[in-house]
Amino acid sequence: MKEQCFESALRRDGFAVDRRILPPGTVVPEHAHPFDVRALVLNGEITLTFNGAEHAFREGDIFVMPAGHPHAEAVGEAGVDYLVGRRTANAPPNDESRTP
Prior knowledge:
Order of helices and strands: HEEEEEE
Strand content: over 45%
Number of domains: 1
Helix content: 10-25%
CATH architecture: Sandwich
Structural class: mainly beta
CATH superfamily: Jelly Rolls
Radius of gyration: 14 Å
């Protein structure tokens, strides 16, 4: 149920939603995205390094990475499966109450 609520909130806030599964030991060197990221870890573990510190995220944890923020990624020994939302930087959330 948490996954469905998280996905609904992502869509409401203007995020495109995807599911990613990364194999154990995947390492992505420092980089930045041109979009905001909000993700929910479904299984496994991913460690993000930013602002000089490592932050581990496991099942049930949510992480947020603003557009342009440098970070590195390292996947744990069980791999990682996560639901991720991507949104163009500074994009307004969807407002279904607006009329065209």
